[in-house]
Amino acid sequence: MPEFNIKHITKYTYEALVRDSVNHIILYPLQDEHQQVLKHDLRISGNPKVDTFIDYYGNQVGFFTYSERHKELEIYSELTVATFAKELPPDETAYPEQQWIEIKELRFQVPYIDYLKWETFDSLPELQEIVGGHLKPDITPYRTALNCCNFVYEKFNYIQGVTTVQTQLNEIWQLKAGVCQDFAHILAQMLRMADIPAKYVSGYICPNKNGIRGEGATHAWVEAYLPSYGWLGLDPTNNCIANETYVKLAVGRSFNDCSPVKGVYKGPSKHELTVQVIVSYDNGLSETTKPVVQQKEPEPTADFQGNSYRRNLELMQQQQQQ
């Protein structure tokens, strides 16, 4: 039962005073029999009241307004989380046909419907052919999911900076490159096309000294639903099963359902965003991500006084998903 301490620090610095910053945060880890939050300290500039609710996907979401004029907004989240290893599904080859029958029966059942909807894009026929090549009646859904995960790992190059959180599937497919969120989006698409329900997962990989991609930072992976087992975490960025060194923050259909911070405010649009994640080992050692800074230029506007709300386009994971 490893325990991890995670600090997630988000800071906005504005070029001039702003006000009425309204924000939506998903910084509350999910809790189940495999993940227990022992402590959570959340501090926000101006000490605003944070109202919380559970969204459609089971995520705890916070909502707050910082009304006073300010030039900085910092959201400091510190967690202590205990994780428990999940027994892996047996790699049984007996009766795979029956397992596929059970999989196909999920297409009209809640809550699996949303996790079976796949997107259309220009290169879809090419991907359909590849997915079809992985579908064989004598191979179980479990083995099929592993094969799809391995395909993404082998065929896509891990390159930071070539995509953003707004990059569409077609561009990711053409580039055959990106970071963990792109790998997760492609794998989720493949699994859904194979009739296997797939969740997009946002969270952290806690350091275990293996030097895997995304270790000690925020990360994205996929959960596939398997008959007679449940949800299995698959990390296509590292071609492995997500287990006790992974801490889940949120789940959804895609990144858009899991963004840790997004919001609007009144004031000039130019600002700087800094994000830092610090993850401590259970033995007291720690690994720190370097602060990531992005400068945003002003948007053209006829009313520079800022009397209307402007959307904050820096979705957090663009900086964090390493």
UniProtKB/TrEMBL annotation:
Q: Where is this region: Disordered?
A: 288-308
State the organism named in the record: Pontibacter diazotrophicus
Domain Transglutaminase-like span(s) in chain numbering? 172-238
A Pfam family in this protein? Bact_transglu_N
- What range does the record give for the signal peptide? none
What's this protein's name?
Transglutaminase family protein
